[in-house]
Amino acid sequence: MKLTLSNILIESLWANINAKKKRGEKSSHKNSKAYKKAVKSGNKLEKSKLKEIILEILYEFEVDEQAKGPHAPVKPGILKKRLGTLSCSKVRKERSKLKDKGTHYAKALQRYLNYHCG
């Protein structure tokens, strides 16, 4: 079951209190041990569930960012497939032959030069 804020509210203390009122039962007075215990357990439940939801959302966001981020490989291995073994001179020569500098191949060549042939 996927954790959501509505699931927390359904299982929360206040949902239990409202359900008890609907059944026609009286709630405990605010200074009783039962009420204090119920409030404490309800807050604990909400905090633990909320923490789980936040961690799950952060994990999903991190995975999405890794998959779609600006540094994710678009076409991995494109240079090795076309050029074989890579060297700075070979990459420079190939880049100079290109007319269209906006292709994935041209960008991969430029990236190689930026990172490896500084």
Strand content: under 5%
Number of DSSP E strands? 0
* Overall number of domains: 2
List unreliable stretches of 5+ residues: none
Helix and strand layout, with pairings?
Blueprint: H1 5-11, H2 13-23, H3 33-68, H4 78-83, H5 88-97, H6 104-116
Helix pairs in contact: 1-3, 5-6
Structure notes:
This protein has helices at 5-11, 13-23, 33-68, 78-83, 88-97, 104-116. It is built from 6 helices and no strands. The protein is rod-shaped. With 118 residues, it is mostly helical. Helix content is 70%, strand content 0%. The longest helix has 36 residues, at 33-68.
Can you give me a brief rundown of this structure?
This protein is mostly helical. The protein contains six helices and no strands.
What characteristics describe this protein?
rod-shaped
